[in-house]
Design a protein that fits this description.
The chain has 96 residues and is mainly α. 54% of the residues lie in helices and 0% in strands. It starts with 5 loop residues before the first helix and ends in an 11-residue tail after the last helix.
Length: 96
Amino acid sequence: MFEAGVEEEVRNALGGPLSTTARKIMGLREVAELSPEEAEAALATRTRQLAAYQRKWMRRIPGLVSVRADRSPDEVADDILALARCGQRVPAGRES
């Protein structure tokens, strides 16, 4: 992100009008206020915390089927198709 210019992007965003919600974007404050090394470490920590929260929250969803995503997109897609062929479906009222 830093090599791609996130610091300039944050400066531009903060230089214009931002909604209260947009000001809560994860990483905005860290990139604006910390050195790149500190911001990267803070973002890694916050990302791990968010992922842990999401996993905990998702355990409460009945019928949720998890698919490992630490593989190529083709492998993930193959797993999703295999689940669909076995009759695994997203519960009614939920979008995939």
